[in-house]
Amino acid sequence: MQRREFLTRSVQAAVGTAMVAEGTGAQAVKASAAKSSATKTAVKVVAKGVELNVRDAAFGAVGDGVAKDTAALQKALDRCAVLGGGVVVLPAGKYLIGSVQLRSKTTLRLEEGVELLGSGEFGDYAVMQVRWEGMWIEGYAALIYAVDAHDLAVVGAGKILGNESMGGRPTKDKPLRHPALVEFLRCDGVHLQGFSTHYARMWNVHPTCCTNVLIEGLTIRSTTGNGDGIDVDSCKHVVIRKCDIATGDDCVSLKSGRGEEGYTLAMATEDVTIEDCTFFDNIFACIGIGSETSGGIRNVKIRRCTFTGAKTFALYIKSRPGRGATIENIVCEDLDVSGMTGGFLRFNLTASGLLGEDPVPGLAGIPQGKNFVFRNVRVKDVPVLVDGSSVHPLKMLEGLVLENITGTCKKGIGLANARGVVIHGVHVTGFEGPLLSTSNVHGVGLAGATTVDGPKLPAEVVAPAVAYKLH
């Protein structure tokens, strides 16, 4: 079987979707996850074609961590592509590089003992259109990037180490987005396996508008704000598994664009499976869904994961009026959660993220949540079990299941503006105050709930004098 076909089948087989029937009552709201066929957890990447070594005389990489090997590595990658594809091998050594571009049918193999070192000079990074917080802007390409390619991979036991001086956010004086570490744009058939990364103040792995993405066995470390682990941005058919991620911002973030630009492009992130991973975060959340949700996010499966610490919540679903679109079919099962500063779960659909330029006005701009399922969850000493009170009454949450949640918490469940709710088998201890507080919530398992005030709502987003168009 060709590698592209195999990767496509592996990713699609591992993706489960969840559907929850709308309405109220125990029989009207059901959660189901489609059973997926077993997938191998260690895919051996075999690319037919040439095998090129960057240390060969034809390419001339030095690998001493001092001389820049950008040109040598790029030459090997380009040569591999024009010969029909294959593998470019980096043997043990330290390779100082700026940005390099992978082509179709090319595997970059980082052998044991390899350290790819990012240059500390912005001039060593290509400039192109990139996605930044849901918007397409001009910015620096990643250390390893690809554009409009297919059947490509980065594999092996080596390390990709970003230069920490390259991290940070764009500023008015320096508006270019800073370089990520690994970033693929509009690619199909992407496989990342086995390597480790370290960076600060910028994203490690950022697939954007890609299909059939398999990320497995990565060890990701980053520090300080904006140091995300994996940002999945308007991608379809994605599997992230057996990764160990400790970050200075979201370990994994799912995004799909911001404001009218993202809403008009309508490129959803969908069919995503995250499984058998370990997460720790010291700035925000372990898994963040949003707040750039204007293209929609749907059919997400999170299972058998361990959350060992977060500054806010283990799981954080976030958006706000002005984003629009729908976040739906989010199924999270068999989770272990401890070490949280905020709690286990929050969904905030009214006030997360900056409004930004060109927000989606009116009712269309209010995000819709549908079919959130959380079952078989074990929590230990979480400050808050569930904070689900920030939902807009004009776009109520349609379908929520909290089932078989056990452990200890200091505060229980708060919900607002939701219907089709099912709460069953929540057995926690150690909390103060009511276990369940609600405002405008309908469903089953709500007996004994304390009634509270609804959320404070942001100002309405009004339509501009001139209708938006892509520009």
Low-confidence stretches: 15-44
Specify the structural class. mainly beta
Q: Report how far apart the termini are.
A: 43 Å
Instruction: Count every helix, treating DSSP H or I runs of 4 or more residues as helices.
Output: 3
Overall strand count: 37
Topology:
Layout: H1 3-14, E1 18-20, E2 31-33, E3 50-53, E4 64-68, H2 70-82, E5 86-90, E6 93-97, E7 100-101, E8 106-110, E9 114-118, E10 127-132, E11 135-140, E12 144-147, E13 150-156, E14 159-161, E15 182-185, E16 188-193, E17 196-200, E18 205-208, E19 211-216, E20 219-223, E21 230-233, E22 236-241, E23 244-247, E24 252-255, H3 259-265, E25 269-275, E26 278-281, E27 287-289, E28 297-309, E29 313-318, E30 326-338, E31 343-348, E32 368-382, E33 386-390, E34 397-409, E35 413-429, E36 436-444, E37 450-451
Parallel strand pairs: 3-5, 4-6, 5-8, 6-9, 7-12, 8-13, 9-14, 12-15, 13-16, 14-17, 15-18, 16-19, 17-20, 18-21, 19-22, 20-23, 21-24, 22-25, 23-26, 24-27, 25-28, 26-28, 27-29, 28-30, 29-31, 30-32, 31-33, 32-34, 33-35, 34-35, 35-36, 36-37
Antiparallel strand pairs: 1-2, 10-11
Provide a descriptive summary of the structure in words.
- With 471 residues, the protein is mostly beta strands.
- Helix content is 7%, strand content 48%.
- The chain has 3 helices and 37 strands.
- It has a 33-stranded parallel β-sheet that branches.
- Strand 10 and strand 11 (135-140) form a beta hairpin.
- The chain is globular, with a radius of gyration of 23 Å.
- It starts with a helix and ends in a 20-residue tail after the last strand.
- Mean pLDDT is 92; it is low at 15-44.
